[in-house]
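>> Question from a student workshop board

For tomorrow's exercise we were told to take the sequence and the ligand below, predict the bound structure, and bring the output to class. My setup keeps failing. Could a helper post the expected result so I can at least see what it should look like? The ligand is glutamine.
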Amino acid sequence: MNYQHILEQVSQEASALAGEGNVASYIPELAKVPPERFGMALVTLDGQVFSTGDASERFSVQSISKVFLLALAIRQVGEKLFERVGKEPSGNPFNSLVQLEYEHGIPRNPFINAGALVMTDVLLEHLPDAKAAVLDFARLLSGSSEVDYDYAVAASERATGFTNIALANFLKAHGNLHHPVEQVVDAYFHHCSLSMSCLELARSFLFLANHGILPHPTSQPINQSTNQPANQSTNQPARLLSVSQTKRLNAVMLTCGFYDEAGEFAFRVGLPGKSGVGGGIAAIMPGHWAAAVWSPEINRFGNSVRGMKALELLTTLTGESIF
Ligand code: GLN
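>> Workshop helper replied:
Here is what the output should look like for this input. Compare the format with yours to find the bug.
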């Protein structure tokens, strides 16, 4: 399969949608991002790397970080996580207060904001430093020690994130938040501010296409309680999630990764994936590859317009999807 040629064709065809959608502006710092940016990367399990456009430029991954939270939370508490958060598609906006009220403080799934706030609370309970753990995990997955939070984006969201603070208060009122609201939202806003490139994101999602095993050749075993590579060096690939846990995480991506547009993404693209309002989308083809795309103009559901089109073209041109 000539993935490089296909990526270039995808980029060319998706450019017809430039100008459709808007850069997220409810987080003021995100409104500064140039709307015309477009990057895409595809990395295979056997180590090949393909990319086009602005694939090396870092952007705000926003809700794509919820996949890292879910992986870490499952590692810490396993199935018990689902006593505090559901696993059904929400069919509602990612920041819906109404739905949380109807459902008495149990978020419908881990990928809506309320679900991510609960996962952040779980990480605060089980890890010495939840902010550091998520950053270290992103560095481990991407193989890049330079991945970092964008502190200006985190501060910008902190200053304007009243809906998320309301959601956290509501969770607290229902006993589904064990730490102070301020502590949970501070960690959550930092997680969302992770700044990564398409190349780094695609690489980070490879373990989900690999039954939970980190495929990097120099991987080390990961210590369960610190989430850091163990001291002894080895060239053995590291297992991060069990086969079953990986299946569950991918299933939640497929059914809930795009909020009230999850059906549309499955229909058009046919892969498990996760979007963020920074305009990024990461998706996996189990057993084969992971891909990431970035175009900051998002639709009313918070999903990248050109990003969705690009992944639709990718699975159409390659004939590769989970269906
Ligand atoms: N930080 C954003 C928020 O909480 C994440 C939303 C998203 O990417 N869909 O609103």
